[in-house]
Automatic annotation (TrEMBL):
It comes from Streptomyces olivochromogenes. The lineage of its organism: Bacteria, Bacillati, Actinomycetota, Actinomycetes, Kitasatosporales. This is DUF4145 domain-containing protein. It comes from the Bacteria.
Length: 312
């Protein structure tokens, strides 16, 4: 039998495609994520089938037994005539064997993979990362293969994706942080040692990007918005966090983190739920807003006051 149909070959191909899928997801290229994710799972499913019996790869069509005899090692077959079962049938066979559970989301991923060449799947595929991770974990456990060897540098992100003890927002935020960290590291591949540290050492105002620094936005004596410099949880660069009052009608309202952006690695968190899910930034926010009154704490920094604009 051709080496390309061996367990080792299918597993290696699945590993390569799975890590490409994670790279795609991190870059926001969800069409490509669906393509590589679907390929990865198909290859892994075939690896499991081969580990049980190479004959399980046979595509049952037209009653031709040549492929069956070839997979069993009893006849030779031209490489151009070698055909194996498709992704959907491979999954169906594993379900009949009770190796895989029924999962409509996995079926959707395979359907998107099959349609990626001529349609845009957009955010529909974005939400399927946990589905891919969970089903891959099931198959890897079945064949006794370690997660870290399969996922490589994406192992921790995948572990977060399948962690049921975290809520959906917490998982999304942790994955965002890990994705931003890996993409930032990718920019320095092949560069001299110290290149990344050199970039991180450049003050934000001097790295060629728009930067406002620490700032308090006031309306009279009321603080409407605070922008503060904080360390990015992904790349450790100096980034910006926004805090807003919980209630502008009270004299000294509490302030909560509302958003975060790092112009260096691209990490962007929006809304109070995502900010609360990032423990590192949430704790920084609590330290900042514990200094009363907030406007006085930032009086020595940049302040913008809202006034009245008149014509003429």
């Amino acid at each position: 039998m051709d080496d390309s149909l061996s367990f080792e070959s299918f597993l290696a191909a699945a590993r390569t495609a799975a890590q490409k899928a994670m790279d795609d997801h991190a870059r926001g290229e969800y069409d490509e994520f669906a393509l590589h994710g679907g390929v990865a799972f198909e290859k892994l499913a075939k690896a499991v089938l081969v580990s049980k019996n190479p004959a399980y790869l046979v595509e049952m069509r037209n009653g031709n037994s040549d492929m069956l005899l070839y997979l069993c090692g009893d006849v030779d077959l031209d490489a151009k005539k070698v055909r194996t079962v498709g992704a959907s049938e491979a999954i169906a066979r594993l379900r009949r064997m009770k190796v895989l559970p029924q999962d409509e989301q996995l079926d959707q991923l395979i359907a998107l993979r099959n349609g990626t060449a001529h349609t845009t799947v957009g955010d529909e595929a974005k939400a399927l990362l946990p589905t891919l991770a969970e089903n891959v974990e099931t198959l890897l456990k079945h064949i006794g293969q370690p997660m870290d060897a399969f996922w490589g540098r994406w192992t921790s992100a995948v572990n977060v994706a399948v962690d049921k003890e975290r809520d959906e927002i917490q998982r999304e935020v942790e994955i965002k942080i890990k994705q931003a960290r890996h993409l930032f590291d990718d920019r320095f591949k092949g560069l001299p040692d110290g290149a990344k540290d050199g970039v991180l050492g450049v003050p934000p105002a001097e790295n060629g990007r728009f930067w406002v620094g620490d700032m308090t936005v006031l309306n009279g004596d009321d603080v409407l918005l605070v922008m503060s410099q904080v360390k990015c949880p992904a790349c450790t660069a100096t980034a910006m966090m926004t805090l807003v009052p919980t209630d502008r009608m009270v004299p000294r309202p509490n302030f909560v983190p509302e958003g975060f952006i790092c112009h260096l690695c691209g990490l962007n968190l929006q809304g109070r739920e995502e900010m609360a899910a990032c423990g590192e930034l949430a704790s920084v926010g609590r330290k900042l807003v514990s200094i009363p009154p907030l406007a006085e704490a930032y009086a020595r920094r940049s302040a913008v006051r809202l006034g009245e604009t008149r014509t003429g």
